[in-house]
């Protein structure tokens, strides 16, 4: 009798569930999706518009799928248990598609889902299994096909009009549009001057001072256009008001006291968690979701073993299960009856929320953050503490404030009205758990209409006791010039909030949207704010202009609603795709003829060439726009035989004037050397120069005068060296587990990897580094180029830093470390080189004509036995010294490790030599790598003191 096979998508999840199910179950992981559309083909049937995807086993998953098939063939039953969302349902459907044909015993295949990974939730789920939900799978499949259609149909247009390698995304382009539109708003913003006026006052019988804001003069309200708080428009009016207020007699006009209740916020949805983790903990979206994933999948909690600490973390719902509410209320009772509401708090969800899962909450309120602190990493504790406090606080009574609004009048030559409001925390309510720091800061006072950022609510001063008609003393009048600020750039938290409010994307897609626009180099993050790159601005402008329907924000939101309809079975998935594809084809047809061809840009500018004084023109290149001299020409030189010139000078001159425009350079050439050279600007000078060249050279070379001066257009690129960008790059965290990613080298160059890549269970998250990033400008070295005399500069390339001629591409000199040994094959020079893995080797500079390479350093010493003109340096680990070895001494040379399964090849060298000499030089030891001290954000310093909830 075989065991039951359970398949989840994560090794960590498999490890946790395996402990709950017992010996009758074998738990395996699919490690995410096992099937996808092919990479090099659109993979969707479009001819008949069936839109059927041509799914294949994901490259690299073949062995895993074969193993799962063998296990399924022996199992009594198969339970598919990926995450309870569209992606998880698609994984389950693909697993069923692969496993079912090979299950000859016709064992049943079930689908099980659970919102939390606890023993009770898992066992309950296995008691009530179901079949794979076809509608849920089709909703995911439809989204995948939509994105594939946009990517494969529109991206080639960008390759043709801008440059190869660019790509368009259905939702990502709309998110990028938000960032670009905000940047355009900032550039077009005109600051408005305003002068707020404040009166610092105190009662005659008290020394307690407070500040009130001037809001009216002679009963007329102060108002400056586009400015929120009351203010005066210019300094003259402000100084006049200040002079009048200093002479005025001040009395309290009215005092209004009332009680204000502050309700607890709802438990976290995905977007709200991402926003609060960013604002309070300094976590980016990827890190937040990675840490939450580990808390959901399970953490070792002492003798209890692996425990899932939070519910599923991809949700747009604020709904909570009754059993969880009961747990929270049992805990709140211990704090005191005044903290427990008569009935549970109920929170209304958003109108367009899917409401498929509960809000994010702790699986067991008894696991307080402090009680399990020792089992959690620093980042896990911070996020769990945030989730736990939010959930428990959501079921507590409101906080109560005593709020006082005071109107004060000052009378001199005019009547000046000022206003101030203050509040005192009367009862902390939910703040006792949700925000203890705000609960301890009990009083605040601020001028009315002063914007609150959450920090003022924790101030430690309050209004003095004031009564109507009471006289007040003026301490001083405060006024200063201010200007309105442009709208702020988006950070991750505010972008997620904007996407959620506009209905673009869903909780499971926010992190991938933000990652994609950064990976494609469409935006940079400076000081934690998104700044669009030049290529991001250009691509967005082109796509929005030429695809106004496909990339319209309202249409993108409408598609999300239609996908929800597919999920619920109310709309046919092919109808959705048919309508979308019809719009797409119409707009592609128009765009093919009307889209601007950016790669052929040649825009006139007011800039002047620093080399020849000609006007500069703006062009488009591989790394964006740049300035090029208008005197540059691609016309190739032309050679005229001396005999042809002597035979018919007029015909030879006509060949020149027909092919070139003046000025040109006439050169008399002897082989490859110049015998004469003269720049000419008219026919008379041309004739004289050609006569001279015909007498001195064997041929006449006509070369058009060209200026190769270029400079980068930094104005349209983000300033990566700006002070506000900070001195260090933002750290990158694993999207699966939230740990700090580490830099590694692989066969295809450097990449980022999760530090738990080889752990148990492993976290196989990797990310190839994007090579299309804006490089820092070349750094001058002050050293002349040995070939052309121009200055050498340091550049950054795929293999790291290198030094080359600043005259590139005319001069292609690259400085190399050369050995004083001739190449054994062709006598050329041997240079030190570096592989993509970072390993040093030695090769002939005449490559590819000569393919000689050596992993060992060559020494300019002949073998004493006469078998070689050079020796090799071989590090000997046994004695820690360098040995000098003849290249024919096969016993002393390092043995290459053969590939797995390959036979060990014998050396084909027919010469055998035993020469080996031990030197007194030790093997060089690499300097230890200094581990940087990571600065973590202090949550107590960054979190707001209070959060107003209506």
From TrEMBL:
Residues 167-172 are annotated as: Interaction with DNA. Pfam families: Topoisom_bac, Toprim, Zn_ribbon_Top1. Residues 3-118 form the Toprim domain. InterPro entries: Topo_IA, Topo_IA_2, Topo_IA_AS, Topo_IA_cen, Topo_IA_cen_sub1, Topo_IA_cen_sub2, Topo_IA_cen_sub3, Topo_IA_core_domain. The record marks 33, 143-144, 147, 152, 159, 314, 520 as: Interaction with DNA. Residues 441-460 are annotated as: Disordered. PROSITE patterns: TOPO_IA_1, TOPO_IA_2, TOPRIM. The keyword Zinc applies. It is an enzyme of class 5 (isomerase). One of its GO terms (biological process) is DNA topological change. The active site is at residue 312. Releases the supercoiling and torsional tension of DNA, which is introduced during the DNA replication and transcription, by transiently cleaving and rejoining one strand of the DNA duplex. Introduces a single-strand break via transesterification at a target site in duplex DNA. The scissile phosphodiester is attacked by the catalytic tyrosine of the enzyme, resulting in the formation of a DNA-(5'-phosphotyrosyl)-enzyme intermediate and the expulsion of a 3'-OH DNA strand. The free DNA strand then undergoes passage around the unbroken strand, thus removing DNA supercoils. Monomer. This is DNA topoisomerase 1. It comes from Terriglobus roseus. The gene is topA.
């Amino acid at each position: 009798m075989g065991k039951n096979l359970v398949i989840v998508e994560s090794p960590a999840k498999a490890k946790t569930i395996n402990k709950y199910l017992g010996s009758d179950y074998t738990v395996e992981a699919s490690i995410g999706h096992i099937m996808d559309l092919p990479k090099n083909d659109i993979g969707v049937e479009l001819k008949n518009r069936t839109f059927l995807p041509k799914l294949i086993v994901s490259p690299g998953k073949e062995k895993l799928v074969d193993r799962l098939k063998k296990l399924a063939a022996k199992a009594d039953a198969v339970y598919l248990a990926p995450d309870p969302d569209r992606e998880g349902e698609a994984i389950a459907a693909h697993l069923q598609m692969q496993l079912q044909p090979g299950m000859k015993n016709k064992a049943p295949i079930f689908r099980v889902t659970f919102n939390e990974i606890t023993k009770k939730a898992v066992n309950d789920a296995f008691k009530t299994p179901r079949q794979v939900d076809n509608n849920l799978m089709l909703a995911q499949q439809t989204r995948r096909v939509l994105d594939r259609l946009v990517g494969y149909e529109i991206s080639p247009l960008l390759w043709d009009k801008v440059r190869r390698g660019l790509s368009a995304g259905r939702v990502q382009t709309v998110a990028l549009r938000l960032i670009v539109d905000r940047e355009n708003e900032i550039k077009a913003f005109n600051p408005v001057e305003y002068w707020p006026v404040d009166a610092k006052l105190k009662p005659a019988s008290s020394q307690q001072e407070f500040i009130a804001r001037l809001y009216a003069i002679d009963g007329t309200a102060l108002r400056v256009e586009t400015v929120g708080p009351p203010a005066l428009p210019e300094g003259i009016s402000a100084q006049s008001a200040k002079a009048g207020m200093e002479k005025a007699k001040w009395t309290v006009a009215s005092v209004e006291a009332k009680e204000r209740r502050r309700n607890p916020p709802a438990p976290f949805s995905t977007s709200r968690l991402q926003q609060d983790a960013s604002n309070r903990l300094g976590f980016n979206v990827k890190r937040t979701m990675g840490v939450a994933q580990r808390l959901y999948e399970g953490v070792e909690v002492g003798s209890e073993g692996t425990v899932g600490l939070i519910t599923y973390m991809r949700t747009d719902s604020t709904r909570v299960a009754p059993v969880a509410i009961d747990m929270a209320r049992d805990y709140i009772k211990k704090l005191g009856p005044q903290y427990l509401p008569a009935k549970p708090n109920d929170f209304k969800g958003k109108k367009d929320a899917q409401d498929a899962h509960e809000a994010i909450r702790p699986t067991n309120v008894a696991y307080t953050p402090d009680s399990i602190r020792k089992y959690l990493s620093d980042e896990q504790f911070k996020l769990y503490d945030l989730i736990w406090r939010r959930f428990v606080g959501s079921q507590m009574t409101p906080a109560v404030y005593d709020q006082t609004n005071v109107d004060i009048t000052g009378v001199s030559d005019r009547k000046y009205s000022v206003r101030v409001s203050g509040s005192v925390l009367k009862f902390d309510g939910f703040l006792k758990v949700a925000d203890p720091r705000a609960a301890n800061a009990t009083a605040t006072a601020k001028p009315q209409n002063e914007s609150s950022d959450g920090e003022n609510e924790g101030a430690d001063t309050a209004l003095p006791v004031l009564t109507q008609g009471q006289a007040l003393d003026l301490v001083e009048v405060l006024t200063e010039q201010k200007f309105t600020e442009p709208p702020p750039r988006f950070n991750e938290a505010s972008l997620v909030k904007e996407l959620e409010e506009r209905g673009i994307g869903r909780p499971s897609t926010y992190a991938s949207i933000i990652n994609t626009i950064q990976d494609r180099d469409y935006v940079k993050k400076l000081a934690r704010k998104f700044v669009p790159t030049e290529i991001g601005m250009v691509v967005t402008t082109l796509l929005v202009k030429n695809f106004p329907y496909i990339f319209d924000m309202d249409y993108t939101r409408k598609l999300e609603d239609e996908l929800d309809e597919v999920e619920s079975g109310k709309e046919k998935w092919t109808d959705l795709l048919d309508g979308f594809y019809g719009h797409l084809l119409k707009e592609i047809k128009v765009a093919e003829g009307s889209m601007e061809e950016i790669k052929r840009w040649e825009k006139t500018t007011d800039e002047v060439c620093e080399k020849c004084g000609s006007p500069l023109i703006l062009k488009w290149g591989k790394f964006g726009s740049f300035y090029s001299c208008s005197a540059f020409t691609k016309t190739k030189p032309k050679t005229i035989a001396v005999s042809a010139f002597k035979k018919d000078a007029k015909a030879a001159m006509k060949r020149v004037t027909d092919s070139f425009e003046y000025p040109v350079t006439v050169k008399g050439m002897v082989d490859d050397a110049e015998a004469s050279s003269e720049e000419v600007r008219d026919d008379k000078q041309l004739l004289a120069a050609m006569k001279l060249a015909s007498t001195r050279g064997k041929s006449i070379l006509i070369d058009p005068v060209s200026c190769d001066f270029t400079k980068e257009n930094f104005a349209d690129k983000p300033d990566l060296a700006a002070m506000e960008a900070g001195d260090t790059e933002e750290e990158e965290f694993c999207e699966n587990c939230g740990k700090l990613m580490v830099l590694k080298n692989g066969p295809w160059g450097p990449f980022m990897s999760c530090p738990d890549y080889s752990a148990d269970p492993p976290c196989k998250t990797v990310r190839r580094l994007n090579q299309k990033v804006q490089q820092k400008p070349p750094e001058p070295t002050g050293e002349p180029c040995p070939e052309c005399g121009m200055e050498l500069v340091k550049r950054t390339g795929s293999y790291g830093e290198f030094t080359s001629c600043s005259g590139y591409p005319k001069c292609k000199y690259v400085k190399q470390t050369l050995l004083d040994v001739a190449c054994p094959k062709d006598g050329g020079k041997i240079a030190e080189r570096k592989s993509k893995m970072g390993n040093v080797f030695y090769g002939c500079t005449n490559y590819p004509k000569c393919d000689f390479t050596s992993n060992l350093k060559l020494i300019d010493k002949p073998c004493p036995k006469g078998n070689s003109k050079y020796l090799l340096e071989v590090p000997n680990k046994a004695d820690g010294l360098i040995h000098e070895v003849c290249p024919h001494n096969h016993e002393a040379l390092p043995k290459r490790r053969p590939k797995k399964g390959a036979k060990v090849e014998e050396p084909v060298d027919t010469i055998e030599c035993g020469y080996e000499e031990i030197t007194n030089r030790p093997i060089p030891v690499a300097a230890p790598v200094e581990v940087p001290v990571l600065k973590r954000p202090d949550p107590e310093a960054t979190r707001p003191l209070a959060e107003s909830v209506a």
